[in-house]
TrEMBL record, chain A:
Location of this chain's protein in the cell: Cell membrane
Highest taxon above the source species: Bacteria
Membrane-spanning intervals of the chain: 33-55, 75-97, 109-131, 255-277
Identification of the protein by name: Histidine/lysine/arginine/ornithine transport system permease protein HisM
Similarity section: Belongs to the binding-protein-dependent transport system permease family.
Gene Ontology cellular component terms for the protein in this record: ATP-binding cassette (ABC) transporter complex
Record note on quaternary structure: The HisPMQJ complex is composed of two ATP-binding proteins (HisP), two transmembrane proteins (HisM and HisQ) and a solute-binding protein (HisJ). The HisPMQ-ArgT complex is composed of two ATP-binding proteins (HisP), two transmembrane proteins (HisM and HisQ) and a solute-binding protein (ArgT).
Keyword Transport: yes
UniProt-listed Pfam families: BPD_transp_1
Bilayer topology term: Multi-pass membrane protein
TrEMBL record, chain B:
Phylogenetic lineage: Bacteria, Bacillati, Actinomycetota, Actinomycetes, Kitasatosporales
GO cellular component, one term: plasma membrane
Catalytic activity: a polar amino acid(out) + ATP + H2O = a polar amino acid(in) + ADP + phosphate + H(+)
UniProt-listed InterPro entries: AAA+_ATPase, ABC_ATPase_HisP-typ, ABC_transporter-like_ATP-bd, ABC_transporter-like_CS, MetN_ABC_transporter-like, P-loop_NTPase
Organism whose genome encodes this protein: Streptomyces roseolilacinus
Membrane-topology annotation of the record: Peripheral membrane protein
Name assigned to this protein: ABC-type polar-amino-acid transporter
One Pfam family it belongs to: ABC_tran
Length: 312, 253
C-alpha cells in the first residue's frame, strides 16, 4: 500500500494545473490551551483523591464475576427487556388510541398518559407493592383466584410498575413519530387502494420508526438504570445483590463501584446497538448512509497511511 | 356508452368555506380531460372527490357508472365501508403535485408495493412488470434508486409508473408538473402524452396550457367553485367567451 503511493511521488498529491494552495499561519487559540490545562488538573485531582481514599480496589475484581453479581446482571437485563416490551407494545397501542377519531378511546389514552407520566415511578412501584392492602384476593372468575400477596410477587410488581410507566412515555414517542410522517404518504397509499391497517403497517410505521428509534434507544438505556429502583420492592437485581455482598463482605462502597461498572458496560453495549438500528431505519432518508464506526476507523487509517506515504 | 366520470351538482365545503358550488361535467372513456383555473377555484378538490379522498357534501358523482363512496338503495344512501372504498380506488390511479413517493423504498419497490400488497401478486411477477413500467417512463436504469436520489422529474415519472402498476381505467393528475424545475417539466409531459395516446382516460388539473391544447380532448375552466366555461381546448384557449376566462388566460398565456 505505502510503496504503491511512494511510487507516484508527492507531486501527484497536488494537481499541477490547480491554483496554489494557501499557506497561512493558523490562529493560536490560547484560551483553549488554558482550559485544557485546567480541565486536566481538575481531573487529575479527582483521580488522586480516589486513589488516596481508603478504598479496597482489590475487592472489585474479586467479586466481579461472583455468582450473585452475574445473577443480578441477568435479572436486570431480563427486567429491562420485559418492561420495555410491555412499554413498546403498550405505547404503540396508546399512541394509536390517542390519534384515533373515537373520542372515548382517545380520552382514555390521554388520561392514562397523564396519570402515569405525572407520578414518580418509585411511587407507582410502592403502590403496586402495597395494593394487597386494598385487594385481599384476586378473582378472575373461574380462570384464576388467589390471595393478592401470592399473586403479586416482587417480580410482577417490578414488571408492572416499570412497564406500565414506560408505556406512557413510549406512547408520546410513538405519537410524535406517527405525526411526523407526511399526510401525502397516507393519501398516496389510500389512492393505490391500500387499507388503513396496511397503510399504517407498510407505509407510515416504517417511516415513523426513523423518528421513534433514537428516543426509544434512550428509553432502553434509561430503563436499564431505572431497574435499580425495584430494589425497593424486594426484587433482587444487580444493585440489590451488590449491596448485599457489600454488607456481608465489609466493602459497601467498592460493591457500588462494581455495580456502576456493570451498568456502564451494559449501557455502552446498548448504545452501539442503537447506532446500527438508527442506521438501518435511515435508509432512503439521506443520499448516503452514515459510515459505521468500523468504516470510519478504516478510512482514517487509510488516509493516515496515504498522508505518510505522501510525505515520504 | 357510460361516462367514465359523471358529476351532477357536486358541492363540497369545509366548515364555512364553500369550495365546490355545484359542478356538472362528464368525462368520456379514453378522453383527456383538462381542468384549469386560478388557485382556490376548487379544481384539485374536485379531483380528490373522484377517488373519495374528499367526501362530497351534496350532488352525485359517478365513476364508470357507479356512485363514488356510497351505495344507493331506493332513495336512501349508505356509506361504503373502508374496504369497499379501497376496492374502488384500485381502478383509479392518482398522481400528486408533490409526488408522494414512499421514501423508504427504492423506485422499483414503490411501483411493486400496491400490486403485491393489494392485488396479492407474487413479488417476482410484480417486479418484472414494475421494471417494464419504469422502462416505459424512461427510468429503467434508476430502478434501485431511492426517491431522495432522484430528481423531481424522475420522481414524478416513478409516481406515474406506480399508479399504472395497478392497471387503472382512469388516471387523475393533480398539477403533476407544478413542483418541478421548468427544464424537467418536458419529460413528465412526454410520459403523459404517451399515456394519452395509449387510450387512457385522464383527468388532468394543470397550468400547462400547451399540454392542454395539444393533448386535451376537453377543457373546463373553473373559478370560485363553479364551471365557468367548457369545450374543446383549442376553442376555449384561443377564443374564450367569458370575461373571467379571458382575464385568466391573459395572465397565464
Amino acid at each position: 500500500m505505502t510503496t504503491d503511493i511512494e511510487k507516484k511521488g508527492p507531486e501527484d498529491a497536488v494537481p499541477p494545473a490547480g491554483p496554489e494552495a494557501i499557506k497561512a499561519i493558523p490562529v493560536r487559540h490560547y484560551g483553549r490551551y488554558v482550559s485544557a490545562v485546567v480541565a486536566i488538573a481538575a481531573f487529575a485531582a479527582i483521580v488522586y483523591a480516589f486513589a488516596q481514599g481508603q478504598i479496597n480496589w482489590d475487592a472489585i475484581p474479586d467479586y466481579f464475576f461472583d455468582d450473585r453479581i452475574v445473577e443480578g446482571v441477568g435479572q436486570t437485563l431480563l427486567l429491562t427487556v420485559l418492561s420495555m416490551a410491555i412499554g413498546i407494545v403498550g405505547g404503540i397501542l396508546l399512541a394509536v388510541m390517542r390519534l384515533s377519531r373515537n373520542p372515548v378511546t382517545s380520552s382514555i389514552a390521554w388520561f392514562y398518559i397523564w396519570f402515569f407520566r405525572g407520578t414518580p415511578v418509585l411511587v407507582q412501584l410502592f403502590v403496586w407493592f402495597n395494593l394487597g392492602l386494598v385487594f385481599e384476593y384476586i378473582n378472575l372468575g373461574p380462570v384464576y383466584k388467589d390471595e393478592w400477596s401470592d399473586f403479586m410477587t416482587p417480580f410482577l410488581t417490578a414488571l408492572l410498575g416499570l412497564g406500565l410507566n414506560e408505556a406512557a412515555y413510549m406512547a408520546e414517542i410513538c405519537r410524535a413519530g406517527l405525526l411526523a410522517v407526511d399526510e401525502g404518504q397516507t393519501e398516496a397509499a389510500h389512492a393505490l387502494g391500500m387499507s388503513h391497517s396496511k397503510t399504517l403497517r407498510r407505509i407510515v410505521i416504517p417511516q415513523a420508526m426513523r423518528v421513534i428509534v433514537p428516543p426509544t434507544g434512550n428509553e432502553v438505556i434509561n430503563m436499564l438504570k431505572t431497574t435499580s429502583l425495584v430494589a425497593a420492592v424486594q426484587y433482587y437485581e444487580l444493585l440489590r445483590n451488590a449491596q448485599d455482598i457489600g454488607q456481608t463482605s465489609g466493602a459497601p462502597v467498592e460493591m457500588l463501584f462494581l455495580a456502576a461498572t456493570w451498568y456502564l458496560i451494559m449501557t455502552s453495549i446498548l448504545s452501539v446497538g442503537q447506532y446500527y438500528l438508527e442506521r438501518y431505519y435511515a435508509r432512503g432518508s439521506s443520499r448516503s448512509l452514515p459510515a459505521t464506526p468500523w468504516q470510519k476507523v478504516k478510512t482514517h487509517l487509510l488516509s493516515f497511511s496515504s498522508r505518510q506515504g505522501g510525505n515520504a | 356508452m357510460t361516462a367514465m366520470v359523471k358529476a351532477e351538482g357536486v358541492h363540497k365545503s369545509y366548515g364555512a368555506a364553500h369550495i365546490l358550488k355545484g359542478i356538472d361535467l362528464e368525462v368520456a372513456p379514453g378522453e383527456v380531460f383538462c381542468l384549469i383555473g386560478p388557485s382556490g377555484s376548487g379544481k384539485s378538490t374536485f379531483l380528490r372527490c373522484i377517488n373519495h379522498l374528499e367526501k362530497v357534501n351534496a350532488g352525485r358523482l359517478y365513476v364508470d357508472g357507479e356512485l363514488v363512496g356510497y351505495r344507493q338503495k331506493g332513495d336512501r344512501l349508505y356509506e361504503l365501508k373502508d374496504g369497499e372504498v379501497a376496492l374502488k380506488r384500485r381502478d383509479i390511479g392518482m398522481v400528486f403535485q408533490r409526488f408522494n413517493l414512499f421514501p423508504h423504498m427504492t423506485a422499483v419497490e414503490n411501483v411493486m408495493e400496491a400490486p403485491v400488497q393489494v392485488k396479492r401478486e407474487t413479488r417476482a411477477v410484480a417486479r418484472e412488470r414494475a421494471l417494464k413500467l419504469l422502462d416505459r417512463v424512461g427510468l429503467a436504469d434508476r430502478a434501485g434508486h431511492y426517491p431522495s436520489q432522484l430528481s423531481g422529474g424522475q420522481q414524478q415519472r416513478v409516481a406515474i409508473a406506480r399508479a399504472l402498476a395497478m392497471e387503472p381505467k382512469l388516471m387523475l393528475f393533480d398539477e403533476p408538473t407544478s413542483a418541478l424545475d421548468p427544464e424537467l417539466v418536458g419529460d413528465v409531459l412526454d410520459v403523459m402524452r404517451d399515456l394519452a395516446e395509449s387510450g387512457m382516460t385522464m383527468v388532468v388539473v394543470t397550468h400547462e396550457m400547451g399540454f392542454a391544447r395539444e393533448v386535451g380532448d376537453s377543457l373546463v375552466f373553473m373559478d370560485g367553485g363553479v364551471v365557468v366555461e367548457s369545450g374543446n381546448p383549442r376553442d376555449v384557449l384561443t377564443n374564450p367567451q367569458h370575461d373571467r376566462t379571458k382575464a385568466f388566460l391573459s395572465k397565464v398565456l
